[in-house]
Amino acid sequence: MQKLAQVCIRRPVFATMLILFLVVMGLDSYRKLGVDFFPKVEFPIVTIRTTLRGAAPEEVESQVTKRIEEAVNTISGIDDLNSISAEGTSLVTIQFVLEKDADIAAQEVRDKIAQILSQLPDDADAPVVDKVATDAAPVINLVISSPRDLRETTKLVDDRIKKNLESLPGVGQVRFVGERIRQIQIWLDVERMFARRLNVDMVRAALAAQNVEVPGGRIEQGPREISLRTLGRVERPADFARLIVSGHGGAPTRISDIADVVDGYEEQRSLARLDGAPAVVLEIRKQAGTNTLEVIHAVKERVSELKPLLPPDFRYTYTRDQSDFIEESFKAVEEHLILGGVLAGIIVLLFIRSWRSTLIAAVAIPTSIISTYTLLNLMGFSLNQITMLGLVLMVGIVIDDAIVVLENIFRFMEEKHMPPVEAAIHGTRDIGLAVMATTLSLVIIFLPVAFMQGIVGRFMSSFGFTAAFAVMVSLLVSFTLTPMLCSRFLKPATGGEATKDTWLFRALAYPYQKLLRWSLRHRWLVAAACLAVMFSSAPLAMRIGKSFLPSDDQSEFEVLFKLPPGSSLEGTEGVLRELEKELATMPGIRNMLSTIGADVRRQVDRGSIIVELVKPHERKQTQDELMVEARRRLAKFRDVNVAVQLPTLIQGGDNRELLYYIQGPDLQQLDRYARTIREKLTKVPGLVDFDTNYEPGKPEYRVVINRDKAADLGVSVGSIATAVRTLVAGDQQATTYREGDDRYDVQLRVKPEYRRTPDALDRLFVPSTLLGNVPLSNVARLEASTGPAQIARYNRQRQVLMMANIAPGQSLSNVLEILDQTVRDLNMPPEYRSGTIGKSKEFARAGKAYVFAFLLSIVLMYMILAAQFESFVDPVTILLSLPLSVPFALLSLMLAGENFSIIYSSVGILVLFGIVKKNSILQIDHIKALRQDGLPRQQAILRGCEDRLRPILMTTAALVAGMIPLAVGGGAGSGSRRTVAIAVIGGQTLCLLLTLLVTPVAYSLFDDLAHWSLWRKLGALFGWKAAPPAAATGD
Q1: How far is CA 807 from CA 293, 624, 684, in A?
Q2: For residue 64, what pLDDT is reported?
Q3: 408 near 996, Cβ under 8 Å?
Q4: Closest by alpha carbon to 792, among 684, 644, 648, 691?
Q5: CB-based contacts of 375: which residues, under 8 Å, 6+ apart?
Q6: What residues contact 162, with CB distance under 8 A and at least 6 apart?
Q7: Please, what are the domains in the chain?
Q8: Of 88, 29, 19, 24, whose CA–CA distance to 58 is shortest?
Q9: pLDDT per residue over 257-267, tens digit each?
Q10: 764 CB neighbour count, 10 Å cutoff
């Protein structure tokens, strides 16, 4: 690198073009980069959804879920196998190990499902296998309200907006919530059917046979060929009433004789309200891997184009618009980049008092940052929270190399009175080894993050590559552009006051020299103090709260509510209105989007309220404070389970911070364990929104079949089950009705009066091979009972999942410790197990991944430093300063009232390692060089530390200045950036003086140990180079 520096000094145009090439490539890459919230990460998760209409959870579990689990369990690479069996629905979720290709995994699942289709119930729909795209979450909601009928509104929105949006590039799915879809309904009259000896199977067969349109082949007429079609489809809904079901007895029996045909709606299983008014919601999801901002902007542009096609009384608004948070976060980071760079430049100006020097050093920031965009583009990264964090953290680091080289060149000009060109050559050569060692060891720190395992590793890999590349570019700039600019633009010393003679430097250097001399006289006392500081990390680590991610003010939160099992849509809507009234009086609310049955299972006993807040600068309370206020207000609804949390930005899984499962064979026993745990955890401060996924109290009627009577009457068990399911639950797609390009389902179901009470259900008829029809009461009885609303399974065993959130300022790690102890106190049998999943599980995995990254970084740093210094001992001296920074970083977070975020605070510790180690390298490198020039050890230490004090102070101050905007700035995403900045600023500032003293003291101690006779014997044995003679130490 020194030769490259000499070439650039002598060939300034070459140096300029080299760096300009990197900048131009970076600018070109910048315009190609997409902007998103999170990196593009694909996890191999596959879901299998099967519908068995009208079936109870236990039946779904035994007939569908278990068979699917057994089939897919043989696929290699399964990490977790989860399933939910609910009324009429089975959902199996398979999470594979991260190394598994998602497309291959999905295909293997499809192959296994195809092999067991014959084992599933005949009336079950074909299982739907989907690959889950974690970044294909909803990116924006379009909410349309109108005084018109909801069916008309839905039709207009479907025809004029939904279909247009679905054709946009990047849009994956547009899903209705609160819609009323047209449906042709055939309401069967049981008594009239019985009188004509007809059953539901005969009606279904008539619909299938008389509402068809099939090709009839071709007719050839000489040179022409004409297609032939049989037009058998019903042209109008009323025509269904004229279809003939049976012709027995001479007179045909039509559908109108046994049923009423209604052109109506699908059964309402969802609703939406915007600020209390009925609305229709279009939930827009993007395709996996597409750019979020581009998709949202395209949606808004298309809606603006379609607005003239909508009636004037239609009002639309956007909710859950992710582009707002992404753009604000991106803008805030850009401001921090610029402000941090300016502050870092001011630091250089304060120490060297030269505008030329300041500009030369500051050039390293834009060149390094802009050049890094090239890597982001080549590796397919986007500008997101993670990559932008890497760039903004590098502002204070990429200028370090330029500062160190510039300061050394400036020192050669001042102290040795060299001309600029000669000073640039000699100054760069003098500091070259140290700069390369510091930079390469910094890269070594960040690369393990890029290759971390687990889900967190996938998200943080882009940070590791971004930071490492920015540092490498800064090294190139410091050996090319910086010395060239110094040789051309720095002015030689003119005999005035040297920059080291200023009041600022004297105020810092003189006390430091006194402390250093004292420390060298009391080395073992300093060593004891260092040990005390190191050991303080343990109690600090135990006391500080730990969390997975810091809380960011997204100007939005979500209220989830759940009523007792069996609650109707009407009852849930009544509770929703009360919740809305309570929240509407809170300050800072922009709008509220309320939904019931918005989940894919359309559960009407639960819903959500998305509370969108005004921007942070427009309200007095923070988002966390408003969430606490919402919990307090809603606590009076005793019969409603309420959770207040941040909405999820990643597809798949529950967004609660604590997910803890207990699994075993007996659901009732699992429920008892869960209740015991809940009673104890409700007393734990900081644990809120507690809930479980086991709901045992759902009312149900069970059809108990008398098999002997059924056999005597010619009624099979299967025909009873099928008839009851069709008559009560309804056949939602008995056939279809076409009108233009639209298709509508035709539902076959008994009239409501025949399915409201047990007595009415007894009057239903089931098909008999002997009698045609027999009353249900003749072959079965109804029993009132209760059962679980759903049955959850984890790795093929039943489970109860406990869910909770952590209140602001509380620690997830403390709650997990209490939870683990509570479970141990239960003394559960060995067939019952427990553990964490979701964020809680990743919390533990991420901690282990970062510990491994720390250890690997230290090992690799030692190897790099040993190779650079050609010494086994000097790297140990340098690395001893690292553990001294940890307690100060933890203390800084505690004083600032922040938890230790496993994701972001760990990144701050890694950055801190790089800076602290860089200071030690500068000291040791110069001390060794002075000793080689003949200075005694004591003088070399004092002189070396004095010479390197200014660049160390400059780089430290520049780093702190560059991160001050992150620590004190606001804006979207500031919570994550603040956590990193506080750890770095506090850790580096508080431990700076200690590390400035510890490194020279440790060097002198290790130098004394090097003269032990034991080492001389080992050196002779292995051919190691002997240490300098003791006489040269100068002690």
Answers
A1: 32, 9, 11
A2: 92
A3: no
A4: 691
A5: 381, 465, 466, 469
A6: 174, 176, 282
A7: 2-32+325-492+503-548+844-1033 (1.20.1640.10), 43-132 (3.30.70.1430), 182-265+699-787 (3.30.2090.10), 556-646 (3.30.70.1430)
A8: 88
A9: 888 999 888 88
A10: 25
Residues of the chain with confidence (pLDDT) below 70: 1-2, 134-137, 248-250, 492-505, 648-654, 696-697, 809-810, 840, 969-973, 1010-1035
Listed in order, strand segments (DSSP E) in 597-695 are 606-613, 641-645, 658-663, 687-692
Amino acid at 423: A
| Spatial separation of the C-alpha atoms in residues 712 and 709, rounded to whole Å | 5
Amino acid residing at 301: E
418 torsion bin: left (phi>0), alpha (psi -120 to 50), beta (else): beta
CB-CB neighbours of 991 under 10 Å: 26
C-alpha 930: how far from chain center: 52
Please work out, in degrees rounded to the nearest 5, the angle formed at the alpha carbon of residue 297 by the alpha carbons of 294 and 157. 120
Output the six-digit token pair for 672: 């008892």
- Secondary structure tally for the chain: helices H, strands E: 37, 32
The owner of tokens 């101690």 is 1005
Q: What is the pLDDT of residue 579?
A: 93
d(CA 53, CA 599): 17
* Tokens linked to 743: 């298709």
- Cα 251 to Cα 258: distance, rounded to the nearest angstrom: 14
Report helix, strand or coil for 642: strand
Give per-residue pLDDT as tens, 438-463: 788 788 888 888 887 777 777 788 88
Compute CA distances 1034 → 526, 648, 937, 1000, 1001, whole Å.
20, 65, 5, 15, 15
Phi, psi of 661 (to 5 degrees): -115, 150
Distance of CA 448 to the CA centre of its chain: 21
Buried b (16+ CB within 10 A) or exposed e, 169-192: ebbbebebbbbbbbbbbbbbbbee
SS3 per-residue string spanning 56-95: CHHHHHHHHHHHHHHHHCCCCCEEEEEEEEECCEEEEEEE
The type of residue at 637 is: F
Express the helix, strand and coil content of the chain in percent, nearest 5 each: 55, 20, 25
Q: 561 in helix, strand or coil?
A: strand
Supply the DSSP symbol for 123.
T
From residue 478, give the alpha-carbon distance in Å to each of 263, 360, 513, 545, 949: 77, 10, 29, 40, 19
Q: Give the integer Cα–Cα distance in Å for 884 and 40.
A: 36
Work out the angle at residue 534's Cα, subtended by the Cα atoms of residues 532 and 537, and round it to the nearest 5 degrees.
110
Q: At what angle do helices 481-489 and 2-10 cross, to 10 degrees?
A: 40
Question: Which of 175, 136, 458 is closest to 291 using CA atoms?
Answer: 136
Q: 455 in helix, strand or coil?
A: helix
Give one word for 142, left, alpha or beta, with left for phi > 0 and alpha for psi -120 to 50. beta
Secondary structure element (H or E) that encloses residue 259, with its range: strand 259-265
- What is the rounded distance in angstroms from the CA atom of residue 492 to the CA atom of residue 413? 6
Please provide residue 307's backbone torsions phi and psi, each rounded to the nearest 5 degrees.
-55, -40
pLDDT of residue 649: 59
| Neighbouring C-alpha atoms within 13 Å toward the C-beta of 415 | 12
